[in-house]
Every structure is written in structure tokens, then in C-alpha cells.
Amino acid sequence: MTTSDSALPLIAAVITKLKATSAVTAFVGQRIYTSVPQPTTFPYIVISVSSAPFDTSDTMGMQHLVRVQGFSRVSSPAEALGIRAAVINTLERISAANLPVTGYTLAYFDKGNLSDIITEDDGITTQSIVEFNAVIM
């Protein structure tokens, strides 16, 4: 048995869902990236994923850790926290029907870790991070 890599379809599904959610786009518009273009306008979101295949006696698929980072340049953490809250409200415990991953079955998707707000070395950029665990078959 072999399994194909479901990371790109998962990333596409997450980006599509976030771009279709007014609570998210109220902060970042359509600026949701996997690779940030330069120059770029703040605030924005970056999506990345770490993946590992799994194989049991009766099924196989991939486990993914989806990281959603919100970047802001306002003088308080409020915007970065607002981005994080909007992302959590959009994606937490989302069903497969509401997050279709083209060519795959989403078996599980839920919030994993949250980070503190991080101030970047430039002293003006803040970052919020939320991670989601996903299982795709």
C-alpha cells in the first residue's frame, strides 16, 4: 500500500476557508500566504504544515500539523490576537464537510497549540501562532 501526500490540498483548503471568512478578512483581507511576497502589506497570515505518513493494519494516511501565523505592525498585541481568535473561531473543530480537502477524506481537524504573542527582532512586528492537528486519509 502507498499513500500520496495530502499536504498541498490541505493547505489549499485551509487558505480557501480563511479567505472566505469575514472575521478573518476583516483583519488581513486576502493576504494569506504560504510564502510572503516582498514587499507586503501588514497585517497578513502565513500557513505552513509539517507532515508524517501513518499506516495501520487497516488504514493509511497522513498526520499534519498546520501552523497559522498572524503578523501585525500595530503598537499593541491586539491585532495579532484578533487574527488568532478569528482563525481559531473559523477552524476549531471544523467538520470535513466544511473543510473539503480535494481528493482526500479529512478524518480529524482541531486546535493543538497556542503560543504567546511574539515581538520580532525589529521591535515593531508582532506574531501570533495557532497550530491545528489534522488526520487525512
Structural class from helices and strands?
A: alpha+beta
* Secondary structure: helix percent: 10-25%
CATH topology: STM4215-like
- Please provide the count of β strands: 6
* Rg from alpha-carbon coordinates: 16 Å
How much of the polypeptide forms β-strand, as a percent range? 35-45%
**Main pleated-sheet profile:** 6 strands, mixed
Series of H and E elements: HHEEEHEEE
| Count of domains | 1
**Under the CATH scheme, which class?**
Alpha Beta
CATH architecture call: 2-Layer Sandwich
CATH homologous superfamily descriptor: Phage tail protein-like
Describe what this molecule looks like in 3D.
The chain has one domain: Phage tail protein-like (STM4215-like), CATH 3.30.2000. The model has no long low-confidence stretch (mean pLDDT 93). The radius of gyration is 16 Å and the shape is elongated. Strands 1, 2, 3, 4, 5 and 6 form a six-stranded mixed sheet that branches. A hairpin with a 6-residue loop joins strand 5 (118-119) and strand 6. The protein is built from three helices and six strands. Helix 2 (22-28) packs antiparallel against helix 3. 25% of the residues lie in helices and 36% in strands. It has 137 residues and is of the alpha+beta class. The longest helix is centred in the middle third of the chain and has 14 residues, at 78-91.
